[in-house]
User: What shape does this take?
Amino acid sequence: MAESAPSHRGSDATGFAVSLRGVTKAYGNGVMALGPFDLDVRQGEFVSLLGPSGCGKSTALRLIAGLAAPTAGQVQVSCQVSRDAGNARADHAIGFVFQEPTLMPWTSVRENVRLPLTLAHVRPQEAEARVSEALARVGLSDFADAYPRELSGGMKMRASLARALVTDPDILLMDEPFAALDEITRFRLNDDLLTLWRSLGKTVIFVTHSVFESVYLSQRVVVMTQRPGRIGAEIRIEAGEPRSDGFRTSAVYADYCRKVSGALAPSYAGRMAL
Amino acid sequence: MSSAPEKSELEGSVLRGLRILLPAIVAVAGTAAWELLVRIYDIQPYVLPGPIAVFQTLIGDWGVLSQSLLATLTTTVEGFIAAAIGGIALALLFNLSRLLEYSLFPYAVILQVTPVIAIAPLLLIYLPQQTAVIVCAWIVAFFPVLSNTTLGLNSVDRNLAGLFQLYGASRLQTLRYLKLPAALPYILGGLRIAGGLSLIGAVVAEIAAGTAGAGSGLAYRIAESGYRLNIPRMFAALFLLSLAGIVIYALLALISHFALRRWHESALGKDN
Assistant: This one.
């Protein structure tokens, strides 16, 4: 199959925000990291990619973001908003939140959040307003002038989230963003993320290795197999909207977690010696 | 329990005080021993002058010495600026074009490893003396700037680079907003080394020019005083050279501290 770069198109008849067809990714040394992998994500859907570490879920996310090219297959990312005249938003359909906060240590939170707009040559006045709005959304307005090292881990992640939101992207890609945080902070950020998702209606693809996090957050959990990563199972989580702490302690939640854990077990088969 | 932090704080300030006090004691003791030695054994000033005699020469010859100091400092600063600009610009070019880096980097290394004292006489033949001295200062000082800047430009956080790629940053934008700020601590480290080295380069070239040149720098003054057995003046000039080196280093360290103090580990207190 011919090598093809991801195509980012203005509109898509299928109605999918992200569509992967027969995508594979091999590393330079010939090791297959992913695939073949098929995934369709509807507009406004919250999907989690769940799997053991090294299963290629981060690779899948990087392919969708266009940070890497697939070895074979097709990656299609469609942008919901047409770029008509008068539409001032920056031309970026994708926001990415990395595993680490990935902030520039040499400048303030405000400048970090402003970066995507600076790179897109957005006018300073407009950029200022949007940076303030994004900071307010994640509750960091009071820390706009702090430097990253002055923030806690959770606040750094919030700043990273604000930066991903500042371009008002259609699709939010999140690569184990809360994995390094303590549980209480993670729960709070999970809740805040759900609130944002409900109010902004963005498509979210969330990579995690936590069964509990994936069930709590998503409408659909895609369980991936060991390398090379393929889809092992797909489980819809149809419960508890809007979700909050009550859902976390409910029997329905526990049932789903059991089900997802069961689906994940084969991915860890043969690893038990570890 | 509450006294524990106070105690460690007290220990901290005592340690800080000792860091200033101990070298000062060594300086005073060393100078006193030197003076005593000279007096007890009645050593003649043309063999070894005592510190007091050196100090008197420093005051007495201040007119000549200050002129020389100014000349050497001017050369050093010019060489340093040339090294800073040359080193950073070359590193940026190497970063943009790998082919250029492959073509030129070996020669930068050759320039660096060839002792400058051996190059200086040649330069003095082909170039006007003042230019030759600056070129010498440049040759020894530019390499640490080049290699440190290159290292800095290459140690950009991989995820941040991905982020810039994601947002479609141009090469110039990546350089301005990502690579240069990320490389800043390394560049400043290189400049700190280059400051001292450009002084060395200037001195080496002045010595090489020696009596043949019409130079009036401190190193020339040392060579000249040597021929005249004016040993106290040699010491006085040497003292001024050391002092100049210390001041250059301190200034660059200060600049580095203020540029990095809000974010870089190197400029933060240990307890942070």
Notes: Residues 141 and 194 of chain B are 4 Å apart (CA to CA). Chain B has two domains: 1-42, 47-261. Chain B has a mean pLDDT of 88.
